[in-house]
Design brief:
It comes from Paramarasmius palmivorus. By secondary structure, this protein is mainly alpha-helical. The protein is built from 4 helices and 2 strands.
């Protein structure tokens, strides 16, 4: 049985309710980019991982294409080709981390500090 806190739809609905309060000066899209979670566990609006590319899925392009490892996404073959030298070692081993929201990265960093402090 899946717990409620593990269902992105419930979280994303809460984000929508927050947006409706109009207490945040940011645009709806900006809040969604920073807070909504996709089925893969990372951001709902993923960013192309091509070098220097900032195109967003669901905004700049309908759907990004997955690399063979299925963890990295690109808007074009050109972006995939340009990123390949950096990504190829991780792609073959399937060890490339998924994209995370800034808040998810911050939580990981804080957790790492606590674990390091606990273990020392």
């Amino acid at each position: 049985m899946t717990e409620n806190y593990m269902q992105p739809e419930l979280w994303n609905n809460a984000v929508d309710e927050y947006i409706l309060t109009q207490k945040d000066p940011r645009s709806r899209l900006e809040i969604e980019r920073e807070a909504k979670i996709g089925a893969h566990g990372g951001p709902l609006h993923r960013r192309c991982e091509g070098v220097g590319c900032q195109r967003l899925e669901g905004h700049d392009i309908a759907q990004l294409k997955k690399c063979r490892c299925e963890k990295v996404v690109y808007c074009s073959e050109e972006c995939q080709h340009n990123h390949w030298p950096e990504h190829k070692g991780l792609c073959r081993t399937h060890k490339h981390p998924i994209q995370l929201l800034r808040s998810q990265r911050n939580i990981e960093q804080v957790a790492a500090v606590f674990v390091a402090a606990f273990l020392s």
